[in-house]
Structure formats: C-alpha cells, structure tokens
C-alpha cells in the first residue's frame, strides 16, 4: 500500500516541488524530502490521507511557506563570525611547541649562553645594561657574546629544523 502510494505520488511531488521551489528559495529536492518525511509521519500516525494528491499539493505549499518564513527571519552575518586575525587552538599549540623547543635548546647551550639568552628572551624586556649587570659582564662585551650564543643556538637547532622540514 505504502509503496504504491509513493510510486503514484512521485511524479506529482516532483512537479509541485519544482513549481514552488523558486518562490520559496529552496531546492526542489529539499522540498520533496520534507514532504516525503511528512507523508511518512502521517502514515505512521493517521494512515494515508483521504485525498493523496490534494494532501500532497497542500504539504508542498506548506513546506514552501515554511521555507520562505525561515528565509525572511535568517540574516547573513555582516562579516565573518570567526576572527581570522586571531590564532586558533592549532596555532597556539604549534607556537607553544616551538617555544618549548627553543627553551630546551637554550638550556643545552654552553657557558653563560643559557643565562644570556634567557635574559634576552625575558618577558620583562631587560635593557643591555640590566642584562650585563645581571650576568656580571661589561655591556660592551654583551653584543659579541650574544652573537656567539646565537650562532651556537642556530647550529644546535639546524638538525631539528631540517628534520621537521623533511617530514612536512
């Protein structure tokens, strides 16, 4: 019974959905699916409609009205809802991993280099005078010392950077 009803209504539903879709702003296939769902719900609760073609036409129009109402209520965002300028969780995780790798490499440096680079990387943004005083060295030797430590750090990080690039 249900299969015969569906087979008999299929061409009518396709035609009605195509006719109403443009005005409702929906796709004909979406209207068809919504009406088939309504029909299945009705068959389960009340049985087949007494006038299936009439019921189908009314159901298509009701779904089209629902679509038009929804379209009028829905408003597009003025801009992109996600703030593209702010980094997401993945970028935070990658940045944290890079900072951790840098800090680990700094700790493996020889001599005063770990203390010097920690002072340079400090969030307190210390001046050369403050860093030199903290390390007990002259301010004039701080630049060459920094350069030597950065060279060591670069050599220490080169294998890690090359390995990461080879994977990606």
Proportion in β-strands: under 5%
Kindly report the average pLDDT value: 84
Straight-line distance between termini: 59 Å
Radius of gyration: 35 Å
List the quaternary state of the chains: single chain
Strand-and-helix sequence, N→C? HHHHHHH
Task: Describe the model.
With 168 residues, the chain is mostly helical. Helix content is 76%, strand content 0%. It is built from seven helices and no strands. Helix 1 packs across helix 2 (28-45) and helix 2 packs across helix 3 (52-73). The chain starts with a helix and ends with a helix.
Keyword list:
0% strand, 7 helices, 76% helix, 168 residues
Please write out the topology.
Elements: H1 2-24, H2 28-45, H3 52-73, H4 89-107, H5 113-121, H6 128-135, H7 139-167
Helix pairs in contact: 1-2, 1-3, 2-3, 5-7
